[in-house]
Amino acid sequence: MFRIGLFFASFAVVSITAVDRHKIVYKSLQEAAVECGQYTIKGQCLGRCETLITRDWNDTTGMSPAYSRFFHPDPVDECNLNRTQRCLQTKVYTVPRPRTCQRASESIQCYLDQFGQVNLTAPQFVRFTPLQDDQIVLECAAIMGYTYEQVYAWIRESAFQRPETRCIYRCFLIRSGLYSDSEGLNMARFYVLCGGYEEDFYQRVEQCAARLRQEVPCNDKCTLAQRLAIECIGADYQAGNLATNVNSKAVEGSRVQSFD
Question: Where is the signal peptide (predicted)?
Answer without folding.
Answer: 1-18
